[in-house]
């Protein structure tokens, strides 16, 4: 197996040592964009672990941006590079102030959009949909506060978010539990209650394939189903 094949197999196998995956890729070529985005993915995975100290998560988050920035220079039109550059920048928001977060969201949205435009996978569309949903869901008070920090507050609509969630479904139908969840959330915002109910039921019936992440999502879905 090649380095890339080993890295991909390790990522999708939830039983592998996440730190070992990072070490393996760190020993590979650092000027290869295919290695760099996979290294960013591996460090992101490591950062999700509850056992990873907060300061380590912080350093990994900003190192990840450096990796993906270099990858973008080498392969500016690669959908996976664009996707992971957006994910990397998004992950730094946990450690940034409100103004920087607002500035970042414009860049994050642009990167996800470019990834979709050059043939990005279902996840690209899902994450762009999430970005649009979060912007559409900002309250009047949040927007007012944001205007005090930046000259132009980014906007979106639930309709735009839904288009991207639907694009995710068209690429990989009823495959992603989190996409089914956000389909339901968005349809509910658009007052399409019957469809929202259908999609939350789809979400609930889908298996938990991402460990604790899906278990938490499943609990949220059950709670949301009771509200509909």
TrEMBL record:
Signal peptide: none annotated. GO terms for molecular function: microtubule binding. Its main location: cytoplasm. The keyword S-adenosyl-L-methionine does not apply. InterPro entries: RMD1-3_a_helical_rpt, TPR-like_helical_dom_sf. It is found in: Cytoplasm, Cytoskeleton. Keywords: Cytoplasm, Cytoskeleton, Repeat, TPR repeat. It comes from the Eukaryota. GO terms for cellular component: cytoplasm; mitotic spindle pole; spindle microtubule. The keyword Endoplasmic reticulum does not apply. Interacts with microtubules. This is Regulator of microtubule dynamics protein 1. It comes from Aphanomyces euteiches.
